Amino acid sequence: MDTTSRIDCAVAVARVAAADCQDRWQTRAAVAYPAFVCLLAGLGMWWLGTSGFPQEGAIVSPMGAVAADRGNGRMLRSVGWPAASGGAALMAAAAAWWLSRRTRPRQSGRHEALACEVRAAAAAAGLSAADEERIVRAVCGSHAPRHHGHGSAAPPLAAVAASLPDPRERAEALRATADFYWLLDDRRRQRRQWLLPACGIVTAGFVVLLYGIAMFGPLADFMHAIATRPPNASGSAAR
Amino acid sequence: MMPDALLHRHVSAAVARHGGIVPAIRAIAAELAPRERRPWVAIADALARGDVAAGATAAAADPACWMPLFSTPAGDPRLLGRIVAAAAGPPVATPRGWLPLVVPLTLVALAFGLLGALAFGFTPLLEEVFTELNMELPPLTQRMLGTAAFIRGIWKPLLLGVGLVIAGWGLTCWWIRRGPAVAAAYTRHLARLVESGVPQDEAVELAAWAVGVPPVSPARPRRPLSHAAVAALAHEPAVAGGLLDAVAECHALRVAGTSFAAGSLWSTLAFGVVLLTVGLYLIGILLPLINLIRQFS
User: Fold this and answer.
1) Is the Cβ of A195 closer than 8 Å to some Cβ of chain B?
2) pLDDT tens-digit map of A17-29
3) Between the CA atoms of B7, B8, B14 and B16, what dihedral angle is there, to the nearest 10 degrees?
4) Which residues, at least 6 apart from B295, have a Cβ–Cβ distance to it below 8 Å?
């Protein structure tokens, strides 16, 4: 292979590495905010459970037995189910992310694009089909599409481009094919760039909502007890 | 609307010139998502059968997909690259244009959900208690109770929401049809057509038809035909093609900048508004409760 072809291959490899790196950073940036919110929510619940949060009985006792009975202790008990639900939501999100990585590792398109770029460089250098295959294996390693360009498992467009007999036409078609896969990969990355933060916000919002329900639920019961208390249950403290 | 005679002439020429590209177009269709395959399958079928009428029907439905075939001479090795760009490149009136709005819309939806839950579940109890205790409420709390009553009368906020959605939709359509994305696509189509030797008036008409806007006369340029594009048209076809490509690139760069800026701006604005609204609401609730607890203790 001549120097130009080698540079083409190196640029394609670097582009794949840069895209992989950008994917990782996008995921980390999207996860950081909900993880921080969930951490704070978890710390808050732990503090409520262990540090003797202002005893509701002390607050509600002046309102009479009914209010004290309805409100006392509910706040601490009610933080349990939102914590469990929030944890379950986070685990489900993590499992979905892990599954998506396990089941769709090759759908990014960038490895197909890399293989096409390398094959195009080899075709432009006038190498034989066997040498093209060897170089694709050498450059792409474990990411090389199986039977790329020759077998039934090859991506259809790459197979059409690789089947052209004239090396110059083949190189041109393979470059166009690589562009196609890069464009598909760009689309997916653009979708991830906007959708991942939204998913993170929804997860964090869900956790905060559960936390809010845990805090406001007993407060609402307490208020209801105050509003519906017997007339002689309290003094005129509020006035 | 494209004149039938002109459309049939260009489709006929494309069918005669590009029969050999059918396997590649079928392969591209197979690689795309199912909802994006239809125009490419229709093109491949029309080319394979040599059916000009079917081709004209397909071209009328999806004009942008046919532009590479109209603007590339027979045997030009760049045809596949142009088809690939049309198939997988960013669309003009983009279905993904809503993506930058995902984060702000999510924020607003969450805030409305939270306010709705508070207005329906918690605030009536508070009002009951405040009335029972004859409490003197701070102005912020009074405003909050008024807002909660407005949310509970569900038709008014619903009508307001529907009105906002319709207004936003209309604004988005207006912006998309006159925005730089359309100008970029239009100028790129124009570059290819002019470069391939299509007469200028036909090229202007075909390019406008491909992006779904009324034809614009070079004598009175307005979007999507910019003054720079008109100046480029005064040159020889090969030079004009290069210049028009540069003009299209400028429009495309503006698209990238505006899309990112719009997304960030709307996210920041939505975050600020949501934080302010929910914060004021919560403070409005908590102020009298703090007073109440202080009085009890």
Assistant:
1) yes
2) 888 888 888 777 7
3) -170
4) A237, A238
pLDDT for B47: 93
- Contact list in A for residue B132 (CB cut-off 8 A) is 226-227
Two tokens, residue B193: 């057509």
Contacting residues of B for A177, CB less than 8 Å apart:
80, 84
> Does residue A197 sit at the B interface (CB-CB below 8 Å)?
yes
E strands, B103-157, are none
Whole-number Å distance between alpha carbons of B37 and B87: 9
B233 touches chain A (CB under 8 A): no
Residue in this structure with the two tokens 């207004």, named with its chain if needed:
B167
Rg of chain B (C-alpha set)? 28
Which tokens sit at A207? 């956790």
Q: Touching check for B27 and chain A: CB below 8 Å? A: yes
The whole model's pTM is what? 0.71
- A193 vs B contacts (CB less than 8 Å): 99
Alpha carbons A88 and A80: distance in angstroms, whole number:
12
SS3 call for B61:
helix
For B244, other C-beta atoms within 10 Å of its C-beta total 28
Q: Which residue among A62, A156, A198 sits closest to B30, beta carbon to beta carbon?
A: A156
